[in-house]
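Let's do one together. I've listed all components of the complex below, 224 residues spread over two lines.
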Amino acid sequence: GQNIDQPTEMTATEGAIVQINCTYQTSGFNGLFWYQQHAGEAPTFLSYNVLDGLEEKGRFSSFLSRSKGYSYLLLKELQMKDSASYLCAVRYSGGSYIPTFGRGTSLIVHP
Amino acid sequence: DVKVTQSSRYLVKRTGEKVFLECVQDMDHENMFWYRQDPGLGLRLIYFSYDVKMKEKGDIPEGYSVSREKKERFSLILESASTNQTSMYLCASSGGTGANVLTFGAGSRLTVL
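Okay, and this is what the predicted structure of the assembly comes out as:
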């Protein structure tokens, strides 16, 4: 398997910054996705990284290091509505190119 | 603007029943997928399809089959439901070039008694 690892749960305070890490096997890497999923809802796309570096989208940023098999999602100025699961998914070349998902990180934002 | 629609949000079935889960997308996507999502296990791929009448097994196809007779519709079939198939089922589609981002439906929560 591709062993995509991310923490099970994290907690943070409203207004703070939180970093959610994701590690994966590097062989055949072809892109990494982050999705957000609120309880009882569909996952929605947040970001896509295929090259090394930081991609910024408003309060959310995603970083990738291909050589280290490492990514993080950075959430700034946390809001209560950011309480959700964050799913890391990695696409590999060879086979079907379909992303494989990690188990997700449940983020709880406290007032 | 709903793009991926799953016909049933909640279903309760009995062991041995045949179950159909329907998914329709209006984005003219070539690719469609069925995942199941269980606590602590994340999203696992059951089946996918790259084209009409085409299907490929994912990571956990046992106990499931699929049908894609039209481009916009992808159905998941449980021939004889079992209690271990109680889960949240998510349909997704993707298409075009570039990242091929998945667009998910809202999910169908199936309980098998």
